[in-house]
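Chapter summary example.
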Amino acid sequence: MIQQEQALAAILSRVRAGAARSVPLLDALGCFAARDYFARVALPPFDNSAMDGYAVVASSSAPGESMHIVGEQPAGLDRRLQVRAGEAVRILTGAPMPAGADAVVMQEDTVVNGSEVIVNTSVASGEFVRRRGGDVAEGQKILSAGQRIGPATVALLASQGLGSVDVGAAVRAAIISTGDELAPPGAELRSGQIYDSNTPLLQALVRKCGADVATTEHCADDEAATAAAVQRGLDSDVLIIAGGVSVGARDFVKSAIRSAGGEIDVWRISLKPGKPFLFGRAGNCAIFGLPGNPVSAFVTFLLFVRPAILKLAGAADAALALPSFSVILAGDIANPADRPHYVRGSVEAGAFEALGRQESHAVFGLSRSNALLRVEPGVTLRQGEVANVLMFD
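The structure predicted for these 393 residues follows.
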């Protein structure tokens, strides 16, 4: 067995980001930028008002001062108005500042009498004025290569007049579930069978990574069927196989990979759950063999498959890991085993509580969890201690 850190390093050293592509701006949501982007338009692009009110010269706007209203500037095209001492321009939020004005008085702090406005408060130069470039300067980096594009990033790119964005490759995944004991949804269970939960689990996890599920397939515990399914799955960027990766008499995944011309680079991890895990390659396809128990498949996907998919999609190294947070333990958690144990649980109000049965088949507790806590071998963590967890939801 090898350690988790060694396994992940080996996997990431063997996968390469795919070719970049240009997509419409909205289609870039959730993708990773393929290059750095720099502002070509300052934000704001001109000095403008932060309030509805009156644009004035601050030095001539003492409390009780009456000023002559010389025009109105709404948001929109600049009317090229000018303000001198003793004058004011009615201005709306977002409207360009008239020449000569250096402050805005909120309308709530004024009294209007015909064409005159009286200021009821002191006015400082720059008050309620948004200066050109105060948010973003021309030439400033606004997006780094490998950074995920979220809704706010879409807005930022749109503010630069961009209609398309260069992003990382689209990643296609094939999923194979194995096992005579698995029945599809809607089928009548026969004695000894269980419903296949691994296929929808892995589909959901792949989609959450932003990748596409190209194909799904179930194959029985049969050597020829497994080899044929693996061969078909190699057309994708990533092949994920659940079950059949251990050392049992009916575990055929390793031999199927080798018969397809693939190489196995990682085999068996010092980890609980998830020891019978493998990673290999065949051509341009990265192959992951996950344990058949759903919790083990879930944990090993998050720790090993997810970062590989993100790297293929162009994510920066800093974006590959699950987010980590410090929490207070709500109870004692012990690991008497001889390998690290990822305990599933829930973080609420800064406290972590282990949930449900911590066994590799127990999906109910997993379904209510949002975090993983790594507990080292032979260690007992005590209630009230501070620990780091990986958040996955």
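To summarize the output: Residues 294-312 form the longest helix (19 residues).
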